[in-house]
Amino acid sequence: MPPQNLDMEHESLGNFLRETRVNQGLDLSAIADQTKISLKNLQAVVEAAGASMEKIVQVVIYLTDMNDFHKMNEVYASYFDEHLPARATVGVAALAKGALVEIQAIAAV
Fold first, then answer.
1. Could you tell me the residue ranges of all domains in the chain?
2. Whole-model pTM?
3. What is the CATH architecture assignment of 15-107?
4. DSSP string, 36-93
5. pLDDT digits 0-9 by tens, 56-102
């Protein structure tokens, strides 16, 4: 899957608006759906670089509410089966565009 087009008229929640045009029915106020969109976008970027999710060696997850960890982790686990990269989860006061989760990764390509 190629990365989503970055040219947008509307910026509501940045990447989340772009993804909802493809995936109708997602609840952008739900941590699980935001996590799914973030991981799908991450997967697209990694694959566009010629790698795969198995090549990810480190992940940092930023959450605006650490009480959302369990719901986020359920979605995260569906993207990483046996391969588990080093991971840190950080609680933050706020994220850009009002997002609930942001995921950063380093992959070997």
1. 15-107
2. 0.78
3. 2-Layer Sandwich (3.30)
4. HHHHHHHHHHHHHTT--GGGEEEEEEEES-GGGHHHHHHHHHHH-SS---EEEEEE-S
5. 999 999 999 999 999 999 999 999 988 899 999 999 999 998 899 99
